[in-house]
Each structure stands twice: as C-alpha cells, then as structure tokens.
Amino acid sequence: MQIKLENLKKYYGEGESQIHAVDDISLDIPENKIFGIIGKSGAGKSSLVRLVSLLEKPDSGAVYYGERRVDNLSEKDLIAERRKIGMIFQNFNLFFSRNAGKNIAYPLEIAKTPKTEIKQRVEEMIKLVGLEDRIEAPVSTLSGGQKQRIAIARALSTKPHILFCDEATSALDPQTTRNILALIREIQKKMNLTVVMITHQMEVIRDACDYVAVVESGKIVEQGKVSEIFANPKTETTKDFIKNLTHNSDDEKSNIVTWSNKKAKYVLHFIGDTTGAPVLSQTAKKFNVDFNILAAGIEKLPESQVGSMSVDISGEEEEIKKAVEFIESQGVRVTVEGE
Q1: Neighbouring C-beta atoms of residue 276, cutoff 10 Å
Q2: pLDDT band at 258 (very low <50, low <70, confident <90, very high)
Q3: Are 305 and 315 within 8 A, CB to CB?
C-alpha cells in the first residue's frame, strides 16, 4: 500500500519552548518497498512515525493510505485501520506471562478471530520466522534475536498491509541485526508488504532499504533511492551518517580504505557494474593526467553495490577537463568538493 504525507506538522509545548517535532513534511512512500527514515536523536523521526502509523494525529496536514485519507478518521474507523498495520519495536514488547506462540496469537485474540484460525495462523507465522521448535518456549528463555523474530511474527499475524519497524534492531548485536534485516527483506518480498523502517543506523538503511529519507530538525533534508544517496550524498547530515558507517571496523559490508587525511578535490561515484571497471587506467592512457587516490571503497547494498573514490587530478587544466568528461561518459559521476 502506498503512503502519502502532505505538509505534516506536529508541535509540542507552547511559546518559546515549543518544539517543531515534525515541520511541514511531505513524502511519498511507494508500495511494496522498504522505505527507511533515518535521523539523529531528536531529529523528529519517531514523532513522524507516530503520525504515519496513526498513533497520534498531526496538528495539520494529511496522511493517506492509498487513495484514502486516514488521519481524520472516527475512533471506530481508526481502530479498524490500525488492524491493517503491523508494528515492531526496539524492546520487543512481548508478554513474559505468555509463551512464544501465545504472544503471536494475542492480536488475533483481540480481533476475536476463531480459535482454529488462530492456531493455524500462529503455526504459519512461527514457521515463517524459523522458530517452529520454540512455539511453547517461555519468553524468558529466548535470545534477543529470537524475541525479535517472535515480535515480527506477532506483527504479521493479522495480515497487515504495512509494517512499521521503530529502531527494531538497535538492541541487537551486529550479526543478529544482519540476520533480522535479511529476514525482513525476505518476508517483505513474500508478502508484498510496504515496510517503513525508522532508525539512526546507516547500516540498516544500506542492508535493508530500497528508499530513504533523511530527517533533521523535523524536516526532510534529503531523500531518494538508497543507491543514489550512497553514491552522491548532498547534505552534511547524510555524509556524516555514511562516514561513520564506513569507519566502523565491525562492519563486514563496508570496505572503505583511507590513505590520507587530506581532502581530495574530486570524488568519483560508481554504481553497479562501474565499480569493477578500470576507468582510471583507461583515462590515464587517453589523457596527460595523473591521479592521486586518497580514499576508495565499495558499499554492498541488497540489490547492487556502490563505490566511491576520493582523488586529486594533476595536469593541464584542459586535459583535466577532458579526463573528467571521459570518466563521466563511462557512467561514473564526478563531484567537486566544495561545489
């Protein structure tokens, strides 16, 4: 289901202390894709997801699910609409008084689903997340990753059209995080879900999302396909997220190597097949220029990979211009730092 946000605003407090948590945000979230919303603490991403998931009403603006406006529904219709939404959270929110299977059954019981259907659906969902042998297990005996798998199964038990993930992997170790993100991608494809992931972790965006919006001070400062954002981040906020990601030594999917702290003049952005092409050697043979590579590497995305290379180019100005034009003709985007 497609989600459309029009000029959403949400304020907290009054007077000079008033906080513009969501400040005139408009956004199109495509159906059957995984859409990430990333921001630092206090950026407004959690407030935004509460509006999008109908947990709060905006002060102004509109939320549409498909063609239907949903932020102004009556209480009765709002409850019915919320049943089409699945939610998973950082701290799992499982009932320790219920075992794994009964946690999955809970939203079905609330919806007064027949017992035979509940049993069938619970078995189907726990198999989907790979925990068939833990259906009777007390929650206290489950690992963090297993708890999140049960939370995912519970969120999907009512067959929602939309799944919201609010910092769903923040409490997990890196390997478990990767496993959970792979599971969400697999489930999204099987069930044709629209998934909205709220996070402060760029690893989550890279490993799971098709599209991303970057939030800062209650506004969307950058948005687009994940591959395009990684290849050519435009705002300092996005650049910081990517820089911190590539400097994480525990990250198996980031292979950025820096040889110098000097800031290069040119950054080359490679997408897909161009990451393996010998573009620089071809350019050096054709033009009278030299390259000094200061940093380079590849980020592995779910459906492709993107590379970046920071370089200085020396030579006559006209030769440098021709070299840059040739590089761009090979499908490599070139940006000049400071421009």
Answers
A1: 11
A2: low
A3: no
Residue type, 166: D
- The structural domains of the chain, with segments of one domain joined by +, span 3-228, 255-336
> Which tens digit of pLDDT belongs to each residue from 120-133?
999 999 999 999 99
Highest CATH level, class, for 255-336? alpha beta
Distance in angstroms (rounded) separating the CA atoms of residues 80 and 120: 23
User: How many alpha carbons lie under 13 Å from residue 113 in its C-beta half-sphere?
Assistant: 19
Mean pLDDT across 320-330: 92
Which positions ≥6 away from 137 have C-beta within 8 Å? 99, 100
Tell me the C-alpha distance between 236 and 242, whole Å.
Answer: 10
Does the pLDDT value for residue 72 go beyond 60? yes
Least Cα distance to 229 among 45, 310, 148, 240 occurs for 240
CA-to-CA separations, 105 to 61, 66, 111, 118, in angstroms, rounded? 35, 28, 10, 6
Crossing angle (nearest 10°) for helices 174-191 and 144-156? 20
Instruction: Give me the CATH topology for the region 3-228.
Output: Rossmann fold (3.40.50)
Which residue in the block uniquely carries the two structure tokens 């000029």?
A: 7
Which residue intervals of the chain are DSSP H helices? 45-52, 75-82, 100-110, 115-128, 144-156, 174-191, 202-208, 226-231, 236-246, 279-286, 317-329
What is the β-pairing status of strands 257-258 and 68-69?
unpaired
Give the chain's end-to-end CA distance (angstroms, integer). Answer: 39
| pLDDT reading at 191 higher than 80 | yes
